[in-house]
Specification:
heterodimer, A: alpha/beta, Rossmann fold, 6-stranded mixed β-sheet, 4-stranded antiparallel β-sheet, 11 helices, 10 strands, about 35% helix, B: alpha+beta, MetI-like fold, 6-stranded antiparallel β-sheet, 13 strands, flat
């Protein structure tokens, strides 16, 4: 379970993000322990401000997508959630991101514990140069699992949940790099869920894939949202429209509009959103 | 018109293509020529040469095999018919003629023929004997007469004699050597105790009691040795082509054969036997004869120790530079320095090795741990450990550079994937990045080994010797003697080829050793390349 580093009281406050989505918005569950709250987040690459005053609530067990033109900060925002931006030198974040009781911006936070709970799938599929089995078993192993039988179970379960088991069960001990692009990306998803996270971050997971592989990944996302809170960054607006329950539109580091996907795509309340989704710019 | 064609040719770059092709061809030809020259010369030295008799105009005779033929340089001789040649003949019998080789002008040779009844005797001392056997004596009793009969008798006796010699050698080198080693250790222990102020007591008595036992064993062995030596009293009376006689104890004979009656099969047999002896025997006669086994062993062992030392050091340094250090001016400077270090002349490393490793570290070790042996240095003198360390320093930049290149080639995504799973940076480096750069590390190691095996200059001053009395690994505690001096193929080539008093006799050894060194480097490289390719296959995709 998630480690509580913040007083529950402060979480129970009814935060009202600027976009109008509240805990009372119909259709969303409201367990404050499980949702992701982004409060007044500013982010800087050196002197450049990449995110300006972001406030949002991402509900649990739903797919939230971030869309926007290149450089709008959507990937940066995603990477704030599991502190991957720490790897870039000279970055600085202000504000709080509360995920199930953890404040990710807490300097005392155990980043590796945080990342164990927040899996990530990258734009370019990046399996380790190891066997398929070792790729999946890697996460559980570094978190201390040594029991070979349990590892085998986890590998099977994870591969089954990404519908890759039948394709690779006979060659678990051959290199993962020999798989096709789509298979490799599903393997990466399986690898991420093998450590049983609660949130799954996906940074343009289909941009390097062909349409058929893309469809499979999208189907998979919809299946996975039963168990995981999924946040996806995408360039592809049709994809956001197809899979996401909520969509946030970012422009030049600002969250322009955030709401249920259907509403955002059919009846946006901000003209800039409409301009973007109708292809007038971006 | 022509100008146009030339212009076109120039623009198309035909000339450039020709030049590049010519450059490659030239390099290939040079390399091939070098290899062919070495292989031919080396292999030729194992092939049994036929023995000829050269009857000279002045009535004298020379017996031997022809090694070389060359034009006698003479000014003004342009006409083909005026050219004269001379031949080099290996006549052996150094103890009788003072030299093995002679040059004879061809116009002084009347006739040449192949005698049927002639023998070549390989001896423990003085090199080959070419000539006839007059008789074989057992004590004072003649047991065979004439070359042919004697040859048969000797060849039947020889295996026993050689076995006996091996026994003697084993007692001399191994058993007596071991007793001497033990006695020396007891002496040093006593001296050490003495230095501490302990000159009596149970420990000292214990040690003192060991001495008589060891001395008794020593005496026993000496008696046994004497017995073995006296059991051999067969002698040969040899006769040179001029009729001079020479008595040779059979114990001195290594091999005896009549090359002129050899069939091709016999020749092949001799060829492979010579190669075998060359690989596994100890050197004889100031390294100009015998084998090079100690040098092979020394080279391989030194390269192994070097690899064990240089690889981890280089990998760690590369990881720090690429993974942990903040990339900036400082790291760039360090990187340039490391690259330049690979180009520092080897002798500079040798001098550093002598000054730092041998005199400073070795000297300190001696004072702290081996004061009883002083003033004889233990580690404070050249040895295989110091030579390997010096070589490790010399080759570590190579490992660093190639590991760094490998690290740079590991995609950022691979590291991120591991970190995103909650792995720490160390876990990522250890479990994902290190396995991924393994092929690059091996590439570095291959280059390092190739360089270390071929380098001679720094070794000459850090522990290589012309003739090492014992190998750095033997059956005596502590089995691996890193302080010992050792032999090295590269140095062997230099020593035999250029420091030998008998250059002509040593020439085959030079080529054979050179070939061996090349083969050894190729073998080490092949092994590492095979390993690397297997790793690569495991790591990377066969089809994407």
């Amino acid at each position: 379970m998630l480690v509580t580093t913040l007083k529950k009281e402060s979480l129970k406050q009814d935060i009202q993000p600027s976009n109008g989505l509240t805990m009372k918005t119909p259709g969303f569950q409201h367990d404050p322990d499980l949702m992701i709250r982004i409060n007044d987040v500013n982010f800087y690459y050196g002197e450049t401000q990449a995110l300006k005053n972001i406030n949002m609530i991402l509900p649990e067990k739903k797919i939230t997508s971030f869309i926007g033109p290149s450089g709008c900060g959507k990937s940066t925002l995603l990477r704030c959630l599991n502190r991957m931006n720490d790897l870039v030198e000279g970055t600085r974040m202000e504000g709080d991101i509360l995920i199930g009781g953890m404040n990710t911006n807490d300097p005392a936070l155990d980043v590796s514990e945080l990342r164990k709970n927040i899996g990530m799938v990258f734009q370019k599929f990046n399996p380790f140069p190891k066997t398929i089995f070792e790729n999946i078993a890697y996460g559980p192993r570094i978190h201390g699992m040594k029991d070979k039988k349990k590892l085998t179970e986890i590998v099977e379960k994870s591969l089954k949940s990404v519908a890759l088991w039948d394709e690779v069960k006979d060659r678990l001990n051959s290199t993962a790099l020999a798989l096709s692009g789509g298979q490799q990306q599903r393997l990466c998803i399986a690898r991420a869920i093998a450590v049983e996270p609660e949130v799954l971050l996906m940074d343009e997971p289909c941009s390097a894939l062909d349409p058929i592989a893309t469809t499979r990944i999208e189907e998979l996302m919809v299946e996975l949202k039963e168990h995981y809170t999924i946040v996806i960054v995408t360039h592809n607006m049709q994809q956001a429209a197809r899979v996401a329950d909520l969509t946030g539109f970012l422009l030049l580091g600002e969250l322009v509009e955030f709401g249920p996907t259907e509403k955002l795509f059919t009846n946006p309340s901000v003209p800039k959103t409409e301009d973007y989704i109708t292809g007038r710019f971006g | 018109m022509i100008v146009n064609i030339l212009k076109k040719t120039w623009r198309r770059g035909d000339l450039c293509i020709w030049l590049t092709g010519a450059g490659l061809a030239l390099s290939l030809i040079l390399t091939t020529a070098l290899l062919v020259a070495i292989v031919v010369n080396a292999m030729g030295s194992f092939w049994p040469g036929e023995i000829q008799i050269f009857n000279l105009n002045d009535g004298s005779k020379v017996l031997g095999n022809q090694m070389n033929r060359e034009i006698i340089p003479r000014y003004g001789a342009q006409d083909e018919r005026q050219k004269t040649f001379r031949v080099q003949i290996k006549k052996g019998n150094r103890d009788i003629y003072n030299s093995d080789f002679v040059w004879i002008d061809e116009n002084k040779i009347k006739t040449v023929r192949f005698p049927e009844e002639v023998v070549a005797v390989a001896r423990r001392e003085w090199g080959f004997f070419f000539g006839y056997i007059k008789e074989v004596l057992d004590g004072d009793q003649v047991i065979a007469r004439g070359t042919q009969e004697s040859l048969k008798v000797v060849q039947s006796l020889l295996p026993k004699v050689i076995a006996n010699n091996k026994k003697i050698e084993k007692i001399e080198k191994k058993e007596i050597g071991a007793i001497n080693y033990k006695l020396e250790r007891v002496r040093l222990k006593l001296k050490k105790l003495n230095l501490k102020g302990i000159s009596e007591g149970a420990v000292v008595d214990d040690l003192n009691q060991k001495i008589p036992g060891l001395k008794m064993k020593y005496n026993d062995l000496e008696k046994k040795l004497l017995g073995l030596r006296n059991s051999q009293n067969t002698k040969l009376t040899l006769q040179t082509v001029e009729g001079r006689e020479k008595t040779l104890p059979l114990a001195q004979v290594l091999d005896i054969y009549d090359p002129n009656s050899f069939s091709l099969l016999d020749k092949l047999g001799y060829f492979f036997k010579s190669i075998n002896d060359f690989l596994w025997d100890d050197p004889r006669e100031a390294n100009t004869e015998g084998g090079v086994f100690p040098a092979i062993f020394g080279t391989a062992f030194m390269v192994m120790i070097m690899s064990v030392l240089a690889t981890p050091l280089g990998v760690l340094a590369a990881f720090y530079l690429r993974e942990y250090a903040r990339q900036g001016t400082m790291v760039s400077i360090v990187r340039i320095a490391v690259n330049n270090l690979a180009g520092v002349p080897a002798i500079v490393f040798g001098v550093f090795g002598v000054g730092f490793f041998i005199y400073f570290i070795g000297g300190t070790i001696d004072q702290l741990f081996f004061p009883e042996a002083l003033p004889t240095p233990t580690f404070g003198t050249g040895g295989i450990l110091w030579a390997s360390l010096t070589m490790a320093l010399l080759t570590v930049p190579v490992v660093i550079v190639s590991t760094e290149e490998g690290l740079a080639a590991v995609p950022k995504g691979t590291r991120e994937a591991s970190l995103a799973l909650g792995a720490t940076k160390f876990e990522t480096s250890w479990r994902v990045v290190l396995p991924a750069v393994m092929p690059s590390i091996l590439t570095g190691l291959i280059l390092a080994m190739a360089r270390a095996a071929g380098e001679v200059a720094p070794l000459m001053i850090t522990g290589v010797v012309k003739l090492a009395p014992s190998l750095p690994v033997d059956g005596l505690w502590p089995f691996i003697h890193l302080e010992r001096k050792f032999m090295h193929l590269g140095f062997h080539i230099y020593d035999v080829g250029f420091q030998s008093p008998n250059v002509d006799a040593a020439r085959p050894m030079v080529f054979a050793t050179t070939l061996l060194l090349i083969l050894m480097v190729i073998f080490l490289n092949m092994a590492a390349i095979y390993l690397r390719n297997r790793l690569r296959k495991q790591l990377s995709a066969s089809a994407v």
